[in-house]
Design goal:
Elements: H1 2-19, E1 49-51, E2 54-69, E3 72-79, E4 88-91, E5 95-102, E6 111-113, E7 134-140, E8 146-151, H2 158-164, E9 168-173, H3 175-179, E10 190-198, H4 212-217, E11 223-226, E12 229-230, E13 233-237, E14 240-247, E15 254-258, E16 264-268, E17 273-280, E18 283-285, E19 290-296, E20 304-309, E21 314-323, E22 348-357, E23 360-363, E24 375-377, E25 382-389, E26 395-399, E27 404-409, E28 426-429, E29 434-440, E30 446-454, H5 458-462, E31 466-471
Parallel strand pairs: 2-5, 4-9, 10-14, 13-21, 22-25, 24-31
Antiparallel strand pairs: 1-2, 2-3, 5-7, 6-8, 8-9, 10-11, 11-12, 14-19, 15-18, 15-20, 16-17, 16-19, 20-21, 22-23, 25-29, 26-28, 26-30, 27-29, 30-31
The structure holds CU-O-CU linkage and copper (II) ion (CU) (2 copies).
One copper (II) ion binds at residues 395, 455, 457, 460, 465.
């Protein structure tokens, strides 16, 4: 009897997935307004105010309007500007205070994704910023150079708030990154790219209304945007160009490459440089993941190409190589040395199974409960986490406050790609696949305030695919 009920339910789910029952918004009309040729917007580098040795960054969250299209103003949420937020550039060991003031008409939070900080400074679901209030993430930067980001994390509202435009980059530099001969002129040869996709309704407004099918499979827009612009153009110097790429989408996996299929080098993963650059002609990023890549345009003066998304055949960026190089750089062969934890030293293995049906999601059979602590980790104890995706849809897995290293995919170390061998904080787990990673929590304990682990497909996270852990 039990078994029969189960079968019935899963066949209903399968039906939903396969047929898209419940309405697919492909049949609603999407705005087809003109998008004039725009140049690539570069998020402003926010100047800190230095007080008593602390770098203060002031960010204002507000409801505003942004021009994605020529003659239409689209309602957005933004930080300081009209869509997304400024870039915060900080150095390892800096004392910083990142101050958020919430001028929205609703509560939110601001999480430092990838930041190694105490739980009370994490900006997760427990650090709510009510409308009209401020909250500061104050800490000493304590990690290697990388590209992180900040975004809301309010229970049940993360997807909606990110979709409307709340997100920005945090760039961390250290002695090592400064010494390397890499492109580092922000906005000139060191280019941030926040990649997203959106749906606009017939009046050019952002349409956030996922159907059950879209909740399961991903709320995938038909308009792809880069730093808040549709198919913008970047005018490049004929030299090596570094792109700091963030998949800032809600739930779309991007497979990126250049229109001429050229080879580029990946130099960094989520939380660190790779030890040596890895040659690729495609890089896959699931939501929340970052990759820094370097593409050599030295011999392309006068040419143009595009940065493409290959799964959905969309253009993210047009590149016009129409400037002479003001300086040159030459990508080094060694970028960093990474501390590698040895699985033999692991004190335990934790297993996590991702599952769900009918628009609700679970980890180990439980939906997120903000009043429940799911796991307790010991400070400095090395652990292996095994995460299994038991569903026919893709997921990923993210841990707050630390990085990990992937040691196996589907039971074998051989399945871990060279460009995934840096420090990571999000790992892509396609349908019915599994990963194992090694992790250690260092520096911060708090008996009362948890960190989160979750799927970073925001529709899944908001519907329960999240858990909480304490470090003691
Ligand atoms: Cu981007 Cu809980 O994180
Ligand atoms: Cu995070
Ligand atoms: Cu998921």
């Amino acid at each position: 009897m039990k078994k029969r009920e189960f079968l019935t339910l899963s066949s209903v789910v399968a039906l939903y997935i396969m047929t898209g029952c419940g309405g697919d918004s492909n049949d609603t009309s999407t705005y087809q307004g003109d998008t004039k040729d725009v140049s690539l917007p570069i998020p402003e580098l926010l100047e800190p105010r230095v007080e008593g040795g602390v770098k203060h960054f002031d960010l204002r969250l507000k409801e505003t309007k942004h021009k994605f299209f020529n003659n239409i103003e689209t309602e957005t949420f933004a930080i300081n500007g009209t869509y997304l937020g400024p870039t915060i550039k900080i150095e390892n060991t800096d004392e910083v205070s990142i101050n958020f003031t919430n001028h929205l008409n609703e509560s939110t939070t601001m999480h430092g994704h990838g930041m190694h900080v105490p739980p009370s400074m994490d900006g997760g679901p427990h650090q709510v910023i009510n409308s009209g209030k401020s909250w500061s993430a104050r800490y000493r930067v304590n990690q290697k150079a990388c590209t992180n980001w900040y975004h809301p994390h309010l229970m049940g509202k993360t997807a909606d708030h990110v979709y409307k435009g709340l997100a920005g980059l945090i760039i961390i530099e250290d002695d090592e990154s400064r010494a390397l001969d890499l492109p580092k002129r922000y906005g000139i040869d060191d280019i941030p790219l926040v990649l997203q996709d959106r749906k606009f309704d017939s009046s050019g407004q952002m349409d956030y209304s996922p159907t059950l099918r879209e909740v399961m499979r991903g709320y995938i827009g038909d308009t792809f945007i880069t730093n808040g612009a549709i198919k913008p153009t970047f005018e490049a110097e004929a030299k090596e160009i570094r792109f700091r790429v963030l998949n800032g989408s809600n739930s779309t996996v991007y497979e990126l490459g250049f229109s001429d299929n050229r080879t580029f080098k990946q130099i960094a993963t989520d939380n660190s440089f790779l030890e040596t650059p890895v040659s690729l002609n495609r890089v896959t990023l699931s939501p929340g993941e970052r990759a820094e890549i370097v593409v050599d345009l030295s011999n392309d003066f006068g040419a143009n190409l595009t940065l493409l998304e290959y799964r959905y055949s969309k253009i993210f960026l047009k590149i016009d190589i129409n400037k002479q190089a003001a300086t040159t750089t030459s990508l080094p062969n060694t970028l960093t040395t990474l501390d590698k934890l040895n699985p033999i030293d692991a004190v335990r293995t934790r297993s996590f199974t991702l599952s769900g049906m009918m628009g609700s999601f679970e980890i180990n059979g439980k939906s997120m409960n903000i009043n429940r602590i799911d796991e307790t980790m010991k400070l400095d104890a090395i652990e292996i986490w095994e995460v299994k995706n038991n569903m026919m849809v893709d997921h990923n897995f993210h841990i707050h406050a630390t990085h990990f290293m992937i040691i196996q995919r589907d039971g074998s170390a051989l399945n871990v790609a060279e460009n995934e061998k840096g420090y990571k904080d999000v790992v892509y787990i396609p349908a019915n696949k599994s990963v194992k990673f090694i992790v250690k929590m260092t520096d911060y304990t708090d008996e009362n305030t948890p960190y989160m682990y979750h799927c970073h497909f925001l529709e899944h996270e908001d519907r329960g695919m999240m858990g909480q852990f304490i470090v003691s």
